[in-house]
Amino acid sequence: MIKVLQPGIHTSVQDLGRFGYRNIGVPVSGAMDSISAGFANALLNNDKNDAVLEITMFGPSLEFTHSTTIIITGAEMTPKLNNKDIINYKLYQIKSGDILTFGKLTKGLRCYLGVKGGFKSAYILKSRSFYDGITSKGFLQKSDIIEYDEEKTSSNLNYPTINPKNQFFETTTIEVFKGPEFELFTSYEQEKLLSEMNSISNKINRMGYRLEEVKVTHNKSIITSPVIPGTVQLTPSGQLIILMKDAPTTGGYPRVFQLSEKSIAIMAQKKTGDIFSFKLL
Amino acid sequence: MTYKPLGESAILVEWPQQISKEILNDIRLFTSKIEAKKWKKIIELNFIYSSLLIIYKSSEIKFIDFKNELQLIYEESYSGVDIFEKTKTIWEIPVCYDIEFGIDLPFLSVEKKLSIADIIFIHSNAIYTVYGIGFLPGFLYLGGLSEKLHHPRRDTPRLEVPKGAVAIGGNQTGIYPQTSPGGWQIIGKTPISMFDIKKDNPCLIKPGDEIKFKSISKDEFDFIKLDYSAEMYELKKGKK
User: Fold this and answer.
1) Prediction ipTM score
2) What are the structural domains, with CATH classification, of chain B?
3) Under an 8 Å CB criterion, which residues of A touch B?
């Protein structure tokens, strides 16, 4: 297992998400950047739905009690193993007593820590993804423990390292589809929604990203209707909200865009103050 | 009806934007026809009010082909319709309307020019239809609130509405499944959990079901709460 010496700020266990429970109002959850989480499992030769740790902005301090193999993908957060620098996208052998810590965030926002065989936190409604109210908590706290299976024979560490110089999430272009209510707006308004730059406000979390700019104010309301991660809502006050993995399953604001899964992963690595533009697919 | 893609792997089917039992039944019928196909390419189906969302594996079928396939299914006649009407469930939700819980009852009584007893009578003598579940796990979107009780949401939402609070917001009534911020007018409280993650089936009530509120005293509230926590209370299926 791992012992949480310090929790970081928003550290949680995530797999691909909780499917099949929208009809009782349960959000899908799952790794915000499913691409980086997927790399971690692929390089560990895990199942793609194995649970990883999603580490946001300020990393935790973790002590391992059993041998395993780990990998870190996604955001670059100056990870150290027993106080020695390690790098992303490389497998490391872990023995009992090893301590993993994180330092300065230098690229992206969320990194993923994978272990051989995945983390074995509580499996509730067919998923291990943390979501407060479904699982007992939303984020790790100090002194928590998370189980994983001890690795008896060590993994082959000679996989090629794929530490990319430029990660896929460094783009400032977010590709989107038109949303169901896009056509409710005039071509001038559509142009405004599409052409201007967007900056990310300080209201960002696993439920959604609120954007700073006031784009198009309106009084169009729709009957409460399904929304999914990546749905972009336009509030009456003119601001855009990009719904993320923990968003409610229904909403009442016009849905002007829909992000692809890849665009959600890119967005998950953006933080307050970052600037990007939308591009129609 | 329109079929629109919602991103790369979901189809949104929309009926006219109305709160209507006919539309709800048409959506339920379509949903059961699709479910009867037992397609592996479908991840999940989800409807609320006048929309049906079909989430599918985009690696297995293209939007346009799937849309055509769905349209054909919609046209098909289906023998399951009668069974589906007969199996409709009406749940009886116990609610204590004591003003200790129904903190906005005195205010509503003045605003609506109705006695508190009248408000309780009107609220607990209607049958409500579950048009969908969303906002929070186990939050039912209910249709069927008497126009006499329609009342706008509070200008400033409360930071904390307690779990189980029964409330009125605009033309809707609902039950808060967990403690959360909320702007609705609170008229009572149910001692049962609308969403209980410790149970195999955390939310017994399904979209398309109907519910009734049963007015209970404070003593009954305490009894039911105790029974419920000891897993000795079973949610009753009511009669029309």
Assistant:
1) 0.92
2) 2-86 (3.30.1360.40), 90-237 (2.40.100.10)
3) 19-27, 124-125, 133-134, 177, 179-180, 222-226, 228, 230-231, 248-250, 255, 258-261
